[in-house]
Amino acid sequence: MGRPRTSRRSSLFSALQQGKTYISGSGEWEPAGTAIASYNVHKCVGLDKRFDPERIATVIGEIDADIIALQEADRRFGDRAGLLDLARLERDCGLLPVPVTGRSNGHGWHGNLLLFRDGTVRDVHQIRLPGVEPRGALVVDLDLDAGPLRIVAAHLGLLRRSRAQQAEAILAAVEADGAMPTLLLGDLNEWRLGSRSSLQSLNPAFGPLTAGLPSFPSRFPLFALDRILGNPHNLVSAIEVHDTPLARIASDHLPIKAWIDLDGAASQVPSQDGKIAA
Predict the structure, then answer these.
(1) How is the chain split into domains, by residue range?
(2) Total-model pTM
(3) Contact predicate 157/133, CB 8 Å
(4) Vertex 82, ends 81 and 86: CA angle to 5°?
(5) Could you tell me the pLDDT band of residue 269, with boundaries at 50, 70 and 90?
């Protein structure tokens, strides 16, 4: 238990050095704003080897996010069928899935499923990511009460070279779609920082990259594989790991949860001519 807490405090201290306020799940302070989460549900198989979609749905209810990106929400092989009860998530949590095409039995795109509570889906792009394994990302433009928000929901590969290529492909896709406050979130499968990180090409567009909190493995979290990164950097105002007894067994990853400040971030988004919007 000692090592995870030390690692988490180190990540927190690094984030504070960036001039931001990040929290590590103590529950002592509840930030305001839109709540965003990311959760690798491990195909609904827990650490006890039990397939239990109801347990995953209960953890999603615990998180109580306005928008949540799920990874491994579909079977990986065969018909790639969706594994969750979407009707229950709508009934109990008020969460609706962002529609995708080309997956008749699946919930998401390469296992990536984005759920949202309020707002309007303006546009959806399904990106095939390069690399040895079949991977993809969802780029979703939402109109929320607080303003427009672009979300890139992704699950990057296991190989460092593939992750580097996938990060560059995501950057290219986001730049092609024009400027607006943007979140990149999901299981990015990278714990390294600095020049050794496969995510280095995301800097300075998304960040802060140093603000990761350990979320894997769920029982004794040591590695910050799951990330919520913002463009501009002040978009994310606080972040925590959702660490509960049920979350520690329901999947091999703990969920992460962040709060965003769209009002503060909007003035920092570059316009199409490269200038900062007024």
Answers:
(1) 2-266
(2) 0.85
(3) yes
(4) 150
(5) low
CB 226 within 8 A of CB 13: no
Assign domain 2-266 one CATH number from 2.40.50.100, 3.40.50.1100, 1.20.1260.10, 3.60.10.10. Answer: 3.60.10.10
Q: Which residues have C-beta within 8 Å of that of residue 49, sequence separation ≥ 6?
A: none
pLDDT tens-digit series, residues 78-136: 567 789 999 999 999 999 999 998 766 778 899 999 999 999 999 999 999 999 988 99
pLDDT above 70 (res 270): no
Query: With contact defined as beta carbons under 8 Å apart, do 24 and 9 qualify?
Result: yes
Residue 126, token pair as written in the block: 């399904």
Count of Cβ atoms closer than 10 Å to residue 51 Cβ: 12
**227 vs 217: CA distance, rounded Å:** 14
| CA-based radius of gyration for the chain | 17
The span from the CA of 62 to the CA of 33, in Å, is 18
As a residue count, the chain comes to 278
pLDDT tens per residue, range 140-186 = 999 999 999 999 999 999 999 999 999 999 999 998 777 899 999 99
Tokens of 40: 């690798």
- CA distances from residue 102 to 79, 133, 166 in whole angstroms, order as listed: 12, 18, 21
DSSP code for 1: -
Long-range CB contacts for residues 26-34, cutoff 8 Å, separation at least 24 = 26/240, 29/238, 31/237, 31/238, 31/259, 32/259, 33/146, 33/237, 33/259, 33/260, 33/261, 33/262, 34/66, 34/67, 34/144, 34/146, 34/149, 34/259, 34/260, 34/262
Position 217 scores a pLDDT of 97
Which three-class secondary structure state does DSSP give residue 74?
Answer: strand
Q: Is 10 in a helix, a strand, or coil?
A: helix
pLDDT of residue 24: 40
